[in-house]
Specification:
The chain is α/β, with parallel strands linked by helices. It is built from 15 helices and 18 strands. Helix content is 34%, strand content 20%. α2 crosses α3 and α14 crosses α15.
């Protein structure tokens, strides 16, 4: 017996056009984990097979997940022997397939990569589970093309919420919300993160995101999941998209480093670093200096949205700042730095290798976690650092990470500088006082 939301979904996801074809070619179902979306899909596939559909293809982010969905559907088919007869199962030697005796329908699974769906015959039903894990369109494109020759095909896009790297999920969700493609049916159960006073502990928000609450899920079981990182609870149990699931640092750690101030007293100990976004549309220059308490203060010096403007201004800006070292990344997330030759000619130029950059990013995460960074609450840095992936090479997708990489490079360079020479002054009573600050 389906849960109320599942029954409602069967009715509305399968609406028909006047010509008798399905209204939606794509059904995007977003709901929190363990709310029965795979079960819903299994019975839907069984319904279609019973009514003449012959070919089903399942994919997921991993073969293991695709196999789990396939096994759930096979269990449904086997439980309805009077409708489907026996189910012949082949599992092994690189082939997974279930064939119903009475209809001769086949349900296969394929790898979620650009080759996964290629070479398959025409498919009536395509199932893409865990859609949030698709970080490129390669796997989707390969599988989706198998339905082209079927005029009334249906593609089930199943997932809970993801992050900025969930490019396929975000594409279809944005498409549906914009209302520009009538072929996409968007059905979502999620909490409202924009609600005034929103808290992840709000039981009413749980009901909105977990339609199985009170049927197969209890409030106690949900409450037990709140012990983990908030962004995990948001995506898994409230179906709310977040900037980054696997983040370099927790937003709360970055917030704990807020300490309004200036680098002006430490002009003789400055390290600066520049980094570029992969498409060269954004360039950040960040300064850093080690404070007397061994924290490192960071500050955005300048950002550019044009390499032309950057080229015309950077030399004069460095002359005015007069840092002890000027760093830049030899290797960008998407490949070699195209400005390397020009940057190498600038005063006190110090290139950071890929290994240096990786070490700098790791060090930055450790320092932020230990509250050893001081910053002014710069919105650009907060936006980027709180959405930064653990590895620099992953920054090629999602939120640009030039600011994060510039901070990491500047901090790494500042910590490597020899301590600035002490300045001495004599007070009126003849006492000598040392300071490494420049007023």
């Amino acid at each position: 017996m389906p849960m109320p939301y599942q029954a409602w979904l069967y009715v509305h996801a399968l609406e028909l056009l006047p010509n008798g074809f399905l209204r939606f070619s794509y059904i995007l179902l977003l709901v929190s984990r363990q709310n029965g979306k795979t079960e819903w899909a299994s019975y839907l596939i069984a319904y279609f097979i019973a009514h003449g559909r012959k070919a089903v293809l399942g994919t997921s982010a991993t073969l293991e997940t695709a196999l789990e969905s396939w096994e759930d559907c096979v269990a449904v088919l086997e439980s309805l022997e009077d409708i489907f007869g026996s189910v012949h199962v082949v599992k092994g030697a690189g082939r997974v397939c279930a064939t119903t005796q009475k209809q001769g329908a086949k349900y296969k699974i394929a790898s979620a990569n650009r080759k996964g769906g290629r070479g398959k015959k025409r498919i009536d039903i395509l199932v893409e589970d865990e859609l949030r894990e698709h970080e490129t369109f390669e796997a989707h494109a390969a599988a989706d093309s198998t339905t082209t020759a079927v005029p009334d095909s249906i593609t089930l896009l199943l997932s809970n919420a993801g992050d900025v790297r969930s490019v396929v999920l975000n594409h279809f969700r944005n498409l549906a919300i914009a209302g520009t493609d009538p072929h996409v049916g968007h059905f979502e159960w999620s909490a409202d993160a924009e609600a005034p006073g929103f808290e992840i502990s709000d039981r009413q928000q749980w009901r909105q995101a977990d339609p199985a609450l009170g049927f197969t899920i209890t409030e106690d079981s949900l409450a037990s999941k709140m012990t983990g990182p908030p962004q995990i609870f948001k995506t898994e149990n409230l179906c709310i998209g977040v900037p980054m699931l696997k983040a370099l640092v927790q937003p709360s750690f970055w917030a704990s480093c807020l300490d309004p101030g200036t680098l002006d007293p430490y002009r003789r100990a400055l390290a600066v670093c520049v980094a570029l976004s992969p498409d060269l549309s954004h360039i950040s220059l960040v300064a850093a200096a080690v404070l007397p308490d061994d924290r490192v203060r960071v500050e955005t010096v300048r950002v550019w949205d044009s390499t032309t403007t950057f080229r015309s201004e950077i030399k004069a800006l460095l002359t005015r700042i007069n840092p002890r070292v000027f760093g830049w990344l030899k290797q960008m997330p998407a490949g070699p730095n195209p400005l390397s030759q020009e940057l190498a000619k600038l005063p006190r130029s110090t290139p950071l290798t890929a290994a240096n950059t990786a070490e700098a990013v790791t060090t930055l995460a450790e320092l932020i976690g230990a509250a050893r960074i001081a910053h002014n609450g710069d919105e650009l840095l907060q936006h980027q650092i709180c959405a930064a992936p653990p590895k620099p090479q992953d920054a090629v997708t999602g939120v640009p990470q030039d600011g994060t990489l510039a901070v990491a490079g500047a901090v790494w360079l500042a910590r490597g500088l020899p301590k600035a020479p002490m300045l001495w002054m004599v007070t009126e009573n003849g006492v000598m006082v040392g300071s490494d600050k420049v007023e």
